Amino acid sequence: MSGRAAAIAALVFVFGATAVAAVALWPREDEREASEPSAAAEAAEPEPLLDPAQVEAYAVDPAPPDPPVRPRLKRPPESGILFDVDTGEVLWAREPNRERPIASLTKMMTALLIAERHEPAERVEISAKAPGVEGSRIGVLRRGSKVPLRGLFLGLIMTSGNDAAAALAEHDAGTIERFVRRMNRRAGEMGLGCTRFAGPAGLQDTGNESCAYDLAALARADLANRWVASITRRRFAKTPFPVGGGTLELANNHFFVQRGVAGLPAARVTGVKTGLTNGAGRCYVTTARLGDRHLGVVLLDSHDPLRQVPILLRAGFKALGASGEGGSVPGPDGP
Question: What's the predicted TM-score (pTM) here?
Answer without folding.
Answer: 0.83
